[in-house]
Amino acid sequence: MDLETGRARWIAVILLVCALIASVIAFRHYEQRGQEQSDMEQDTPPARQNEQAKETVNTFMDIGIMVQMGDFRQRVRLYQDEDHLYAFVPAAADMTEIQWAYDDDLYMVENVDKGYKVSDGDIFSLSEEDESEERFRITDIRENEEVICQLRLLQSENLPAVFICTESGSMDWIHADKGNKESGEFFCIDALGASAYTGAMEKISGRGNSSWVEDKKSYSVTLDGEAALAGMPAAEKWVLQANALDATRMRNKLTYDMAHDLGLQYAIDSAYVDLWLNGEYAGNYLLCEKIEAGRERVNISTVDTPREENGRYIRGNEGAWWEYESEYEKRDGYLLEFNERIEDEKAGYFYAAEQQVEVKTPAALTFEEYKYISEYARNLTQSTENAAQSDEYLEYIDLDSWSLLFLINELANDTDANRYSVFYYKDKDTKMYAGPIWDYDIAWGNDVLGKDVRCSFSRKGWYGTLYDNSVFYDNAVSKYREHMKPVLEKYLDEHIDAEGERIRRSIQMDDIRWAHSEGYTRRSPERDWQKAVSNLKDYIRDRMDFFDGVWLSGETYHRIFFRDGDTAVAVTYVRDGDSVPQDVLDYVAGCLAQNSWRTSDGEAYGASQPVYTDMDLYAQKLQVEE
Description:
- The structure is a single chain.
- By secondary structure, the protein is of the alpha+beta class.
- It has helices at residues 3-43, 46-53, 172-176, 251-262, 367-385, 399-412, 470-513, 529-552, 582-591; strands at 58-69, 72-81, 84-89, 99-101, 107-111, 116-118, 133-140, 145-155, 161-166, 181-189, 195-207, 218-227, 235-241, 270-277, 280-289, 311-315, 319-324, 334-338, 348-352, 355-361, 422-426, 433-434, 455-457, 557-564, 567-575, 596-599, 615-620.
- Helix 4 packs antiparallel against helix 7 (470-513).
């Protein structure tokens, strides 16, 4: 064997040994990594493991269906939720005319269970009646990716359908900031397929305060001309309320209806609709009249609005207005809103009852108009503060409308009352009227501050002392006995159930659409719709029972004001000689992040002490020695 042959064999042996050593090292390395991965999975909760394995998929696909509603056709996109696809269909859709609508060059759709391919324009044969589901394979031809999903069709009942198509074809700009606006098209089709409006939309924008942060958002819409939508009087401006904080989606509608039934003038009209935004189902919405001055809205005197470009906006310590070089005719109609968060940067406003009051009408408020309405409000405020000793306030307010607003806010236990969305109006040579009412989605027990039927929260505004006036008190109690109590009993016996049945299918669709939204209906302790409606009825019934005792029993009740500093934040009513229940004391203290109460003379108050007069209790943190 020559030298070269021997050297080659030794090299081969050395290489073989090296390969074996490398294999052992690699095996031990992967074994160690596998153990580390196993240990990590054991330390990871099952929900998190599933999340790592597969991210949640809930999105609208670029695969849709074409629905026919009378003479109107609209493409509706399919909604994917994990391995399910949903086709959300309007109430008016002709189920025999639904067609597939997608780009055959981009996608391929196959029925897996029945073994056939469907093409753009083919009849969509899936039935909704038996809640049937069939598996479809959808292939993205460009990406060479496919997904197999159970497809289910859901059709609404009874409700009009609203379709909004923005110029950009997206809602991204609108959702980026509440002040953003975009034009487009607006279509409203009733439940039978008749068209109420199909045409241009001047603008759509977001609306809402705390609710704007929710995924399901509310919108303001201005049409390119007046239209009578969903049986309501014709107008250009409308509001789409999302009711995203209310699991029942009924609190706003029921309270607006109640205002009508109680005879509160200019109570707004509203109607449930299903909403699609650029072909994507957005859910169950409440289409409402916008609170504004107008012949079919709040019918107060108006004249041409001064042009802002001819004036200068003035903001002082007491309010804001516009100054003009030219003189304008003084306007006589005023629409006001108690509003702690005025968003219009050039709105006229003033202060009354230590609250900020925005002047919604007239627009571009002149100094003369500002001076008149702020002085009227100041005199009104002074008269209400003296209501326990004088009836002078009756020169300034319409007693019946103020009594009704008090009753609605008190029974509904609206924790926003007198802070946001509380409206008043005044016309030439009239007193100040209360209303229209607005925004009750966190009322009727749908807020931690209002869940106890014995406690009412938010005591700000003009109502603080009117309860002490015998004329106002007797009028309010009389209206409760003769009007509000019968209306509420009718609602509990019939109206709530009937309204619930009308929207049942739409709510089912809404729940599926927003199931993955963390904030959806988060204010409601019970998120199941039927249970939430039952809880609402229980709250109304218990609230009525409580005030039946306070106002109709003939016994003497005293008010206990719970104060945080000098501000009365809540009140309860206690029968003469009884004490404040301990659970009420604990509940309100907990809401204020405190744990004890003292009286106005600084003495500690406990639940064993009887009450013989109205009383102020001050929240405090009791220091416990360790």
